[in-house]
Design brief:
- By secondary structure, this protein is of the alpha+beta class.
- Helices cover 46% and strands 21% of the residues.
- The strands form 3 sheets. It has an 8-stranded antiparallel beta sheet, with helices on one face. The protein has a 5-stranded antiparallel beta sheet with strand order 9-18-17-14-15, covered by helices on one side.
- The chain is elongated, with a radius of gyration of 55 Å.
- The two termini are 85 Å apart.
- 28% of the residues are buried.
- The mean pLDDT is 85.
Amino acid sequence: MKSLRIKFIAIISLIIILILSISGYIIITQKKRELSYDIYLKARSFAELTVSEIIDNYNIYYKSQSFIHFNRKIQNIFALNPDIERIQIANYNSEILYDSIDDISSNKSIKKIVNDEMVIRLKDIKPSIKTENRIVYLIKNTSDGSYKYTNKEEINIETIQNTEKIDNIVYPYTDNQTRVIYYVSYDNLLERIYETTFKIALILFISFVIGVIISFIFADKIIKPINKLTKGLNEIAKGNLKYRVKVRVKDEIKTLADGFNKMAEDLSISTKAMIEKEKISKELEIAKKIQDNLLPPLPKIPGLHIAASVKPAEEVGGDCYDFIEASEDNTMFYLADVTGHGVPAGLIVAITNALFYTMLKFYKNTRDIIIQINNILKEKTESNMFVTAVLCDWNHKNKTLKYTSAGHEQIIHFQSNQKKSVLCPAGGMALGMFPKISKYVKEEKILLNNDDVIIIYSDGIPEAWSSDTEMLGMKKFQKIVDSICNKYSDPKDIHDQIIKQVKQFMGKYPQADDITLIVAKHVL
């Protein structure tokens, strides 16, 4: 956790330094501009106020060679503005009459100005200012004393900006023959900038130290609860789901600690639920294996080629089928569909499967078998659990299929000679609903010709949904059967294509019920 403390302190310190640095830069930049413009204004005012005094002292003392008095006067004038580092007196003909940097103990030879730019300015009767990039001429408004900024041709231009540095000012004397040249220095400005920078750096250092101390205090208050949370996580990782974190703060850390404790509690509950779910999952897996073992291998039935499958909606389904040899000439098979799906339906499936297998040994008529199974299911199952079924009896000698329906879906009989299917009579009563159903059930007969196909299915096929509003239905299903039976001859191909097209219709919509399908084709 030391690294987190260091990161916290570093971030706070960096923020303080960044804020103060930006603030210092803005302050220094603004101050530099203000002082720079202030130097210009003072230099211009200084030139305007002292030009007469300088020329008068020059005429009185300098020309009479009273150099000590003249020097004293000039020094007094210099003291009025420390930003003026040099003064020159020149005449209209560009001759330097006096230069403050020269030794004035004796008259010096007159120097001639050869700078063309300065020559032009000395010949002009208007005051002029030389900046780093341009020359500006001043025209004073006699009414209010303000200045108008022009070029040599007296065309108005922009005023002196606070970012411009002044090199010198040429100010004419009233005799229009003499000029004073004032040279401006920015050394004092730099000194003041350095002083300001030093003060800001000192403030920055002090703020940094204070920030580090404050950051350390706050980081410690934050890190201690985090250490407790870390310890709690380690305890949870070890499997101690009863461990709880206690913190005294009443801020977001407290919210985090409460969330951690709630997580530990939920994790304890979830772990118990997960163990129980795993247990149930294992039991369902075993139940599915048992149910799969109840489904028989497809038998070889004289005169019939068979294909069949069950696709449960959950791990354990509520549909089943079986093929049982009843005699030398007869084979019985059925498809049963228990209401609902899942474990309860799976248990009823197992019971129903055993009942069919048992009753076939005592009864040879499909109607009698259905009636007897109903009596037992009514006694042994809940009233809300019932089974629809269809029991078929195939006699390969007379090519006759007898069947009894117990409230099940209608058998589809595809007649090869007509190249279309018909729905066989349904009827009957679901098993386990009522105690006596003999008057409701009836054995029907189907005469099969060569290549005729029998389709037996659970309601999961016609009741397949592609959306919340669209269901497959019997009409579409019968059209699918006709199309496939006219195209394919092998029962397995017919079976697989039916399942494929039902799945295509459903798309990504979840399977709501078990899907079971038996395809039987009569072949000579």
